[in-house]
What we know:
By secondary structure, the protein is mostly helical. The protein is 96% helix and 0% strand. The chain has one helix at residues 2-80. The radius of gyration is 35 Å and the shape is rod-shaped. The N and C termini lie far apart (119 Å). The mean pLDDT is 90.
Amino acid sequence: MAESFKDKAKETAQDAAEKARQAGQTISEKASEFGHAAKEKAQEAGEALGEKAGEAKEWLKEKAHQAGEKIEEAGESVQRNT
């Protein structure tokens, strides 16, 4: 009977170890999936940010050009009136 109890305990311990190993794999897989999803979102956010930065750069260039034209017009107006 003692042998039977030892065998049962050993079997139970092996089952528990296998379940723990499987749970560890599942957690690892979920963590990996999360990491990939987070990387994709970060890339999407970076691309969107890059687009907005490009748009902002073009807007600033246009505004600077407009300001330069107004300064030039004001300078010409001052020269005509003097």
